[in-house]
Design a protein that fits this description.
- This protein is 37% helix and 21% strand.
- The protein is an alpha/beta fold.
- It has a 7-stranded mixed β-sheet with strand order 2-3-4-1-5-7-6, sandwiched between helices.
- It starts with a strand and ends in a 10-residue tail after the last helix.
Amino acid sequence: MRLIVGLGNPGPRYAKNRHNVGFVAIDAIARRYGFPAFRDRFKGELSEGVIGGEKRLLLKPQTFMNASGEAVLAAASFYKIPPSEIVVIHDEIDLRPGKLRVKRGGGSAGHNGLRSIDALLGADYWRVRIGVGHPGVKELVQPYVLQNFTAEEIGEWVGPLIDAVAETIALLLAGDSAAFMSEVARRCAPPDDKAEP
């Protein structure tokens, strides 16, 4: 796995939104492994570094969420990276806050960023799904994911989970998704079921 993509919307207005947890994770990975400053490339922000002894690319599309696939396609095409070697980190409303799941392929489940990538690259890429919870009513989903994480959420689970992802991402990139999920769970237990909205 050579290209790691975090999904989000560009600009300070969206920086702390639930929908931007992919950007937050990419920034944490970059810090953890000493990646250089991001550069404007491929309709996104790109940084190249080393994780697990191998060259890796970190990408944050700057096209807004519903056109994320344009940046991913541009980077993947330039570096000749097939979808099976791409990891996309994104928010997942169908998982409770703090829960993490990894899978390859599948549908977009209504996520506009995934829908855009699927349309341009197909669905055969890896997804790191970070649960942010569901507001309970379909009509409230969009405003919910575009709200900032609360200070309580950041302290209780967002910060610890993102740190755990950054510290153990090498396991996933080496092809051991089960070990990655287990290690993240060991380091960062999600909040109680009672916290689920």
